Amino acid sequence: MKIYTRSGDQGTTSVIGGRVPKDHIQVETYGTIDELNCFVGQAISDLKGERYSDIREALLQIQHELFDCGSDLAFANPDGKTFKVQAALIEQLEKWIDQYDAENPKVTRFILPGGTSAASSLHICRTVCRRAERLVVTLAGTTPINSEVRSYLNRLSDLFFVLARTANVRGGVADVEYIRSAEVFRNEP
């Protein structure tokens, strides 16, 4: 198989069951999910050492699931029968959020992205994930989609936030609170 097909030279690309312009919101949406997947790979590379092995393993699983998200959004006429993203994937994200957040100090104010290199990479993942989520919302306004993808990305961005904080904790670096922030988060007992 050749890498180049020349079929996109006129500005269109294939989706499952058809072709659309390369600047179509559908392509922009799953392309942003692909971009996010690349940043997740970068975060995995930044999480060096045994203390991060569990996070690397979770992120590798997420990379596969991001391919599933892109696949679910790449149908010209989705029928719902072949969707890969299901509620169980979201439930797993919630379990990880709870598990890793238990390692973190309570947060009451906004925090600045940064700290360790790994935390910084995970914050980039968080923001690209939020952009992908916004694009999914836009796409859903024009095209039937698997709504579980929207929920998955929403929860995934929360996980990236929690993992960035965990990476800082495990790296011995404190989060930096936004100095003009009031206490905006309620901490449950």
TrEMBL record:
Pathway it works in: Cofactor biosynthesis; adenosylcobalamin biosynthesis; adenosylcobalamin from cob(II)yrinate a,c-diamide: step 2/7
Keyword DNA-binding in annotation: no
GO biological process, alphabetically ordered: cobalamin biosynthetic process
Annotated Pfam families: Cob_adeno_trans (PF01923)
Database matches in Gene3D superfamilies: Cobalamin adenosyltransferase-like (1.20.1200.10)
Protein origin, superkingdom: Bacteria
Record-linked InterPro entries: CblAdoTrfase-like, CblAdoTrfase-like_sf, PduO-typ
One MF annotation (Gene Ontology) recorded for this entry: corrinoid adenosyltransferase activity
Catalytic activity: 2 cob(II)yrinate a,c diamide + reduced [electron-transfer flavoprotein] + 2 ATP = 2 adenosylcob(III)yrinate a,c-diamide + 2 triphosphate + oxidized [electron-transfer flavoprotein] + 3 H(+); 2 cob(II)alamin + reduced [electron-transfer flavoprotein] + 2 ATP = 2 adenosylcob(III)alamin + 2 triphosphate + oxidized [electron-transfer flavoprotein] + 3 H(+)
EC number assigned by the record: 2.5.1.17
Domain Cobalamin adenosyltransferase-like, chain residue ranges per copy: 3-167
Keyword annotations of the record: ATP-binding, Cobalamin biosynthesis, Nucleotide-binding, Transferase
Similarity section: Belongs to the Cob(I)alamin adenosyltransferase family.
The protein's assembly and partners: Homotrimer.
Name the UniProt record assigns to this protein: Corrinoid adenosyltransferase
